[in-house]
Design brief:
Helix content of chain A is 37%, strand content 28%. With 252 residues, chain A is α/β, with parallel strands linked by helices. In chain A, strand 1 and strand 2 form a beta hairpin. Classes of the chains: A alpha/beta (252), B alpha/beta (481).
Amino acid sequence: MLSIKNLHASVEGNEILKGINLEVNPGEVHAIMGPNGSGKSTLANVLAGREEYEVTEGTVLYKGEDLLEMDVDERAHAGVFLAFQYPVEIPGVSMATFLKEAINANRRARGQEELSPVEMLKFIRNKTKLLGMDEQMLKRSLNEGFSGGEKKRNEMLQMALLEPSLAILDETDSGLDIDALRVVADSVNALRSPDRSFIIVTHYQRLLNYIVPDFVHVLFNGRIVKSGGKELALDLEERGYDWIKEENAVAG
Amino acid sequence: MSESMQTLEEHTSSDYKYGFTTDIETEVFPKGLNEDTIRRLSAKKEEPVWLLEWRLKAYRHWLTMEEPHWPNVKYEPIDYQDIIYYASPKKKPKYNSLDEVDPELLNTFEKLGIPLEEQKVLAGVAVDAVIDSVSVTTTYKEMLAEKGIIFCSFSEAVKEHPELIKKYLGSVVPQTDNFFAALNSAVFSDGSFVYIPKGVRCPIELSTYFRINTANTGQFERTLIVAEEGSYVSYLEGCTAPMRDENQLHAAVVELIALDDAYIKYSTVQNWYPGDAEGRGGIYNFVTKRGLCAGKRSRISWTQVETGSAITWKYPSCILKGDDSIGEFYSVAVTNNRQEADTGTKMIHIGKNTRSTIVSKGISAGRSHNSYRGLVKVGKRAENAHNFSQCDSLLMGDKCGAHTFPYLEVENNTAKVEHEATTSKIGEDQLFYLQQRGLKEEDAINMIVNGYCKEVFQELPMEFAAEAQKLLAISLEGSVG
């Protein structure tokens, strides 16, 4: 699915990622943890193609293709989805319009027929209901005036509608109460399948109580310094990040 | 410059899509302006003596005036002696059906995406199309006549309804009002006249497509709309002009009069040639548009989508004279490349309990400059006047400018005046978000811009709103980042 080799990336000349290596196979859920400023969000954004992040070295293969050569929308068409940490507000663009355009843009790019207005409405309504969202929300402007929880729910709705092959969740759990956290977890769990992979970027272990990852990686100072199974997350919960910092300070 | 900024600029620097000319034989006056030009023009149009005198008065006053230079726009000086003041299609046709109309002309409309035939059938729009200075074709006239509605060319109105013209011409914009209005009053060639009788609701949207089509022809349109007590009319004006190298002056005057309980809705989509990417050519659009809410509870609503012209200088205004009258101004002004726009409105509150709303959305791209200039004036007598103004500016790229000049004159302390203003850049965050969801960059830009303009677009009649969205997309093609 995804093969990252020696990935280096900078923002405004500051190197943030300093040689990331990561293999994600179909159906796997990988959690990326680490202290603030370790490069977690940078990794998520680089994979989605945000241009402020300059890749200076390394390769990323996605389904055998060079991901770094693809435009942002091409990555989306190929099934890469980023759930944003801070979803932006777009005034005057209704949720319904946005969802419809996004779904059809992806369908067109994948050579599928666009959904008819009736099919579209049914499809969107259905998923909205599953996420326990109020249909009235479809009339509101995209993310405008949404609460933190509503924004994250909206990200999950888009993920459900766009049915990605690789979903990257960038600290989707931050600032959420327990109910909203459950919605996020349920959304991911409902979509888990043998041909779909997830990269879940998170600071805290608590989301991983609900989404059980296959692998946990600890990112520190731009490198993955530790990888393990789901127990690693519990370890981090118990011991914090300081021991990781210390270990690496010694090693570095 | 970031990469997306670059694509933004590529996106906005597309060529003008409506740059073509129609080859119709025209009769033209030699260049230049003097009293003889005006006499000849008036004679050509077989006008009554009073109208000639009216024109001459305007001309003589114009000679004493100076071209205004307070707008925030820069352009080469205009040589008023280098302009042709009259041009008309040579054969003055009187058609019963479109079949008789010059196919070349129909083809032009076709290219503009304004198939008259289709509009007649589908949209139910009576189209009084003006090419250059003479009305060529008028439709739906009979149907309107049954309701007593008059919708005709200005020249025809002068002949058929002289009493109405005499009564209302210049009653809102006097011929001495300002430099360009005086010039228009002296030399206006044609335009449209609408009269809605008492209690009549005009059953269709009235529309006129203007088109400047002869090189070096200054176009001086005159529009007059009178809505009697309790009547309603929605009037649409849309324009495109063919590509030209020389700058062309357009100085139109539009006067609206709404009597007791009357409602006039005036919508404009303006897409004249803006000049090329370096600012060569393009239309100078210096227009005086003003509505008089003369009657109690009358209402005048201006909606404009301005994407064209090299220089735009216009302030559709409302004089709220009748008690409880309402004035509205909804505007989207787009400038790109080297375009300059100084536009806004004036809301003059005179009557009691008068209300006005101003929603202005400026979009600047390329190296353009876009200014909002608005005056809200509340007179001594205007008890409980209320104004709400919202002026937003959207910048695309980092070489353009947006400016806001709100003026406020309040002489009655019961007035309530609210003003909100924002300036934002089209966000890379917003673009990235939409692209990450699979939208192409230009579709993402269009979505953001259309969302930004929504409050104005929803004021436009349906078919016009669709056209406006298309226009916006064309105007901003190749521009964001």
